[in-house]
Amino acid sequence: MPPPKDVVKIAIQMVGAIPQLIELQQTKPLASVLKDVCDAWSLPNAERYALQYADGRQTYITESNRRDIKNGSILRLTTSPDQEAERLYIGIQSKNVDVKTDSLKKLASLSQDVTFAQEFISRNGLKQIYSIVEEGNDAGEMLAHTLKAFTELMEHDFVSWENLSTVFIKKIVSYVNMNAVDASIQQLSLSILENMVPTSHVLFELVKKEVTLDRLLTHLQATNAQLQLKAMALLIALLLSATDTERRDMMDYLREKNIRQFIHKNIIHSSEPLGDEMAHYLYVLQSVSLNLCEHRMKTSMDPYSQEQRDLLQSLRQTAFELESEVPAGTFSTERRRSLCAKEFRKLGFMNNSNPAEDLRRAPPGLLALDNMVYFSRNTPNAYSRFVLENSSREDRHECPFARSSIQLTLILCEILHIGEPCSETAQAFYPMFFGQDHFFEELFCICIQLVNKTWKEMRATQEDFDKVMQVVREQITRTLSLKPTSLELFKTRVNALNYSEILKLRQTERLHQEETLAVPVLELREKLKPELLELVRQQRLLHLCEGTLFRKISSRRRQDKLWYCRLSPNHKVLHYGDVEEGVQSPPIESLPEKIPVADMKMLLVGKECPHTKEKSSGKQNKDVLELAFSIVHDVEEYCLNFIAPTRYEFCLWTDGLNVLLGKEMTSERTQTDLDVLLSMELKLRLLDLENISIPDDPPPIPKPPSNLNFSHQEQ
Predict the structure, then answer these.
(1) How far apart are CA 104 and CA 126, in angstroms?
(2) Which of 296, 487, 592, 599 is 20 to 30 Å from the Cα of 261, by its Cα?
(3) Where are the annotated segments for Disordered (predicted)?
(4) Nearest to residue 594, comparing CAs of 618, 554, 566?
């Protein structure tokens, strides 16, 4: 008979004693449970003891978290958090170096526990931590334990970062700026500053002033991957906390220092594989850099701005240089105005008498003008060839340079998500972005020539403008999806994907769609679907058995700690637990926490999850909502909360959990995978019918013969 819901069978250990196997009554006060355990071992003063998990993070058991205890859990009787906090508070003030070091080491470990942290902070323990750092007498291992303990205590958000003294902050800064400091201390110091920067503008200004970009670049060039990662994390925190003007100045300085080329060579193409966190920081750096174009993109042209009018005139003068060299007195004002209008028409402006009107639309606004000017100045031969080649064509077949440039700029802004806030979890960056200083402008130069090439291949007229731009968008997106490592490679691939190739791809996709819409094929699809859907279910469960590395995300900081979750091979228990950075696939035995599948009640996603309700509802958290899911187990208050690393993982996990709950798989990935499997299976089944048209209706069944009295006699 299964035990009642409020009873869990557990083991309790104590050093030097035989373990106790007890049935824990969840309705019984914890103090009474402790008294019974202590009495069994003849221990007085039960109030000085507490229970904690024997494995994993060794969290203390309290009235608030006791419901998380599962059948089969192993607990340990240990000193109570208040006693331990008092002992360590005294220990870190000891004059004995060994005692002080051991106390700080223990403190760094126990500070992860919220109950202990509360007890230690209530004793003004942080003040002692401040003193150790500010006095600066300790170094090496002792200092590393101190900084680690401080970081863990601050993680619980009991104390505001704004309460830190300037002396303390400058001491942390000094560890970042000094050369002869242990790498572990520099990593912890960088991490502390990274946490500090987003909390207030005052702290941002202080850190920005004290830690120069040059110093961060020095750390980025270190061979130590963790030091490199922490330096990048602080750089990103500074960029995200800066005002638009400060951010632009910082990015200009980083450009002068060739940070892109360094990242391209030493981080992206490093011998070490790129971690998820570094990939995210590179994505943010790319997004911040591209978003510098947002202001120009959203600014319409001012026809009264002399500077903007000069830029516009420079386009005409560069294209029709010889014609513009005619002395000013040769033509009347009216004749010159007419000549200018004619030249602007040849340039492809819709409103040739007042071309500024074409640039009033925002987006793309002035960004389109910037791109055209960059193209004319940096590739003058290609620019002149584009304009002159089209101005000599018949009117109906000329490719309008200006109109194409304006539309292309808008397309590139949409593809590269310019003007959109950075995602909190995305890792998708373009390696070629870091191989080029003026990435957006150079990409435009390649793509505008692609427009001209595609226009000729399509033998397009002005009426076909939208069709041509649609093909160009497809060429760009298909090529970018291949993740070319350089702009040269992008140029080669996008030019190889000509109009005839696009037509072939479209035709293949269309034929495939038509084939699968025939009535007999649809009937066969329906017949095959249950079998293949079961295959998808098995794949989802297999993925859960392999497990996934998740990151905890707090409101103050993008990523906290790593944890791993996987399903047992018999599909009966979910195992999970915290893991260290760099651990890829921990064995199931090393994951101390567990949830029996039988105890799982429901799956929550998106806004329904408790951990998303705690967050702000800003745009920057939209991606977190799309990746959040929770498992409700036992009673509804208890949830295991997830933030999937990618949308792909979100789909696989939510599908797998729905399978375990006996529900339908609902993610968009289910339909995609099912379609792929059905397509493959149908192609295999229909191989013998290649080039044979399948009728919509089955052939008629012939009438039966008038009599069935016939037989065949062998001779």
Answers:
(1) 12
(2) 296
(3) 694-715
(4) 566
Q: Rounded distance, CA 611 to CA 630, Å? A: 8
pTM for this model (two decimals): 0.77
Cα–Cα dist 369/285, whole Å:
25
Query: Do 540 and 439 belong to one domain?
Result: no
In a domain, 283, yes or no: no
For residue 260, tell me if it sits in a domain.
Answer: yes
pLDDT tens figures, 14-24:
988 999 999 99
Shared domain check, 504 and 540: no
Same domain as 89, residue 71: no
> In Å, what is the CA distance from 671 to each residue of 194, 648, 653, 676?
41, 13, 15, 9
Is residue 620's pLDDT more than 50?
A: no
| Same domain flag for 552 and 429 | no
Residue-range definition of the domain harbouring residue 392? 298-321+334-508
Between residues 89 and 507, the one the model is more confident about: 89
For residue range 658-704, what is the model confidence (pLDDT) as tens digits?
Answer: 999 999 998 999 999 998 898 888 878 777 666 566 666 777 888 88
Among 52, 79, 106, the domain boundary falls at 79
The phi and psi torsions of 75 (rounded to 5 degrees) equal -110, 165
Per-residue pLDDT for 526 more than 70?
Answer: yes
Helix (H, G, I), strand (E, B) or coil at 631: strand
Please state the φ and ψ torsions of residue 348, each to the nearest 5 degrees.
100, 15
355 lies in the same domain as 472: yes
Q: Do both 110 and 255 map to the same domain?
A: yes
**With 70 as the cut, is the pLDDT of residue 560 above it?**
no
Tell me whether residue 219 is exposed, middle or buried, using C-beta atoms within 10 angstroms of its C-beta: 0 to 12, 13 to 18, 19 or more. buried
Among residues of the chain, what percentage have pLDDT more than 70? 91
Residue among 543, 545, 563, 566 nearest 553 (CA): 563
- SS3 per-residue string spanning 28-75: CCHHHHHHHHHHHCCCCCHHHEEEEECCCCCCECCCCCHHHCCCCCEE
Q: Backbone phi, then psi, for 478, in 5-degree steps?
A: -65, -40
Domain count, the chain: 4
- In this structure, what are the phi and psi dihedrals at residue 349, rounded to the nearest 5 degrees? -80, 140
CATH code of the domain in which 641 resides: 2.30.29.30
Q: Using CA atoms, how far apart are residues 546 and 354, in angstroms rounded to an integer? A: 64
Q: Looking at the domain assignment, is residue 275 inside a domain?
A: no
386 in the same domain as 362: yes
Identify whether residues 116 and 205 lie together within a single domain: yes
pLDDT of 494 > 60? The answer is: yes
Band (193; pLDDT cuts 50, 70, 90) = very high
Closest-CA residue to 106 (of 83, 131, 76): 83
Please name the amino acid found at residue 118: Q
Mean pLDDT is lowest, of 125-129, 335-339, 624-628, for 335-339
CATH classification at residue 208: 1.25.10.10
Average pLDDT for the chain = 87
Residues whose CB is less than 8 angstroms from the CB of residue 80 and which lie 6 or more positions away in sequence, other chains included:
47, 48, 49, 50
Q: Which two tokens stand for residue 19?
A: 């373990």
- In angstroms, rounded to a whole number, what is the distance separating the alpha carbons of residues 595 and 600? 8
